[in-house]
Target: HTH araC/xylS-type domain-containing protein
Amino acid sequence: MREEFHMAVRFDVESLPPNDRAEAIREVSRTLNGRSEVDFPSNPDLIRAVTITNALGSVEISSIHWNVAALRRAAGPMTDDVEPHIFVGLQKSGVSRFDQGGRQAEIRPGDLVLLQNVNPYSVLFQDTVTAFTLRVPNRILGLSPSLLGRITSVRLGAERPVVDTAAAFISRLARNQATIGETDAGLLAQPCIELIRAVVTTGLGCDDLAREPLHHTLLQRVMTYIRLHLAERDLSAERIAAEHFISVRQLYLTLSQAGISLGDWVRSQRLEKCKLELASPLHQFTTIEAIAHRWGFASAPHFSRVFKAAYGVSPREWRHRNRRLPAETE
Model:
């Protein structure tokens, strides 16, 4: 059962028939992780799971209390609607055993552990476990997958000052989820990202990266975000800046230093997508207007003008040139 309180979403299987609980938990897991497997107690009457989740911008904070036996992700591609991200887990009660990247770690109360959702992993839980988790997209964190791959499934204990600070911060966030409003969420996202970045880099002994501000990877993260959202007509400078916790002025400055004009670059990328679809037999029965609209162009006449200005031919002429004729007429 899902309930919404302010911005927090509570999921509790207690009200479900016992035989429906396992599938409900699997569905929640698939939403977060893509293809994954969950093991449960043999008696469905004993299955328990309560989660509370809150979005802090691109960061997601969750509290989990369950008696799931195991969680696994096998090798294979992610589903299209699941973005690569990293989990930071804080164990509050119980014992969990993590396995990823050839490393195994036993996690006890007070410990932190990280997992990448794109790589195979397994987590075994002893009895009932309570944990708090932060989920952060890789593109926002600004650290390479290879670097993240070196710190996953490693016990990070509270004897490390940065880990102790992060654990206290995560605990406080999780305890106050029900009272976090939209304004608070926007203010809390960036400290989460900076703290996780510090945990990762200091855990690896990369103090230089820990001190390196996120603006060093800002351009890469902005360009990745734009490519992911090209088809959305409300993709604006204001939205891009807010997503990366910067001002619109800083966004334009960052792009201009790389010789990029935001409007021109977005339009050129959208035109390339349209050009490919117009030439593809997979879209031969899709109207030009529908293709243009799918990639963010408001009207067919406007699309035709900018397409011809970019490529020297109209969309219709381009499609005709690239249309494959039947074998007998070639």
